[in-house]
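Section 3.1: Structural characterization of target chains.
Under the original work plan, the team committed to producing a structural model for every single-chain target entering the pipeline before any wet-lab resources were allocated. The record below documents one such target. The sequence was received from the expression subgroup and is listed exactly as submitted; it comprises 228 residues.
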Amino acid sequence: MLKYLGTPRKSHEALFGLMLLPLVGLLCGCVAGSSQDPDQAQTEADKPLAIAAESPLREATVNPEKDSVDRLRRARLEAAFIPTKSLAERQQEVRQELAARKGDPFAQLPGTVVVTPLPRPVLPPVPARTPSPPVSRPVSSPVRPRPTPVAVRPQPPSPPAAPLKVTGVVDMGSDIYAIVSAPGDLTSQYVRRGQRLAGGLYVQDVFAGASPGVVVLQNGRRFVRYVN
């Protein structure tokens, strides 16, 4: 039984190295058949391994050929990872990018996506609205004051037909004449139906008979005068 005297950490590492020996041997057998670059393997072989440096037991038991293959695999794994940058380096890069775009406020910021605007559809022009004709309002005529009725002075009443004197009636067959004396006339005159006399008198009728006479009109009033 193999005994190792040392610190607990060293003992655990030694045991871990012993457990990996069969697995490393199997991997080395698989990789040995493949073609490798001698120069690259030699360059990678010069780098000390952290596990080999920390474990003296591994340095004594690991085959140099297997160790070179293991180093080559580790180098490939390290080359596959992207080297990370510190926070200060990343802040410095962001400041430089912002300073380069300081003159153009609309420049694209890092990490933004440019969105191409969609073409707008062309709409037909809106027809102009036809102005409505002005509405003519009726012109109101000024209200004229109503004329004040003027009181008409009544005409003085005409003298009654009493002064008319009928002195006789003559029947001539076709017409009947009356002999009258109008006021203001110096002589008598013969009148018949429909004749006018002085003073606005109108001979409406001349009749003969037992009591012959004349019917006259004066201002719409009807008077009958008989033969005196």
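Residues 165-226 form a domain with the SH3 type barrels. fold (CATH 2.30.30).
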